[in-house]
Write a structure and sequence with these properties.
The complex is a heterodimer of chains A (about 110) and B (about 120). Chain A is an all-beta fold and about 110 residues long. Helix content of chain A is about 0%, strand content about 50%. The N and C termini of chain B lie far apart (about 40 Å). Classes of the chains: A mainly beta (about 110), B mainly beta (about 120).
Chain lengths: ~110, ~120
């Protein structure tokens, strides 16, 4: 089974700051990596699919990159509404979610 | 617009069964598989499996092969998750999600509480 390790587990950042979240797979996942945002009490929402494709309606301050085993979600300028937990999901071999990164405002 | 609307919260006793619904609208139900995801209180997301909405064939993750049943009512564009012989560790929120390879739309989740 493929394991997904997200880092950091918690992140505190200021409004306007550039934020980078990471997700590492235990083996090559061929860019089959998606990012989801989950706000408190809500369902997850798709942000990025296949590493770097922005889902419909998602602000352009969100972007994704990576290859092989290492993937990154970047928020170019953090906004208050971005406070949430972010999960990655690999779909290369079955499905595995990362444990999440909780993003808070400093 | 695409929507997945799930049934309401459930409070059950250990050993009982329940059936959660997920009603889809805004797209052709049988064009996309339906995925199921569990989230225990304060925890991350756990993948449960999926159901082929054209054939009705379910596929379960290893942890969900024993007491969990995915089913469909295609005429009503609805997917179901049944959990039999409920255990305390089934206490969680259960989400359905439309499958376009990635999970592009999610239901609002059903909070299930199992307690004696």
């Amino acid at each position: 089974d493929i394991q997904m390790t997200q880092s950091p587990s918690f992140l505190s950042a200021s409004v306007g700051e550039r934020v980078t979240l990471s997700c590492r797979a235990s083996q090559n996942i061929n860019k089959y990596l998606d990012w989801y945002q989950q706000k408190l009490g809500e369902a997850p929402k798709l942000l990025i699919y296949n590493t770097n494709n922005l889902h419909t309606g998602i602000p352009s301050r969100f972007s994704g990159s990576g290859s092989g085993t290492d993937y990154t979600l970047t928020i170019s300028s953090l906004q208050p509404e971005d406070v949430a937990t972010y999960f990655c999901l690999q779909r290369n071999s079955w499905y595995t979610f990362g444990a999440g990164t909780k993003l808070e405002l400093k | 617009q695409i929507q997945l609307v799930q049934s309401g919260p459930e409070l059950k006793k250990p050993g009982e069964s329940l059936k959660i619904s997920c009603k889809a609208s805004g797209y052709t139900f049988t064009d996309y598989a339906m995925q199921w995801v569990k989230q225990a209180p304060g925890k991350g997301l756990q993948y449960m499996g999926w159901i082929n909405t054209q054939t009705g064939k379910p596929t379960y993750a290893d942890d969900f092969k024993e007491r969990f049943v995915f089913s469909l009512e295609t005429s009503a564009s609805t997917a179901y998750l049944q959990i039999n012989n409920l255990k305390n560790e089934d206490t969680a929120t259960y989400f359905c999600a439309k499958d376009l390879y990635y999970f592009d739309y999610w239901g609002q989740g059903v909070m299930v509480t199992v307690s004696s």
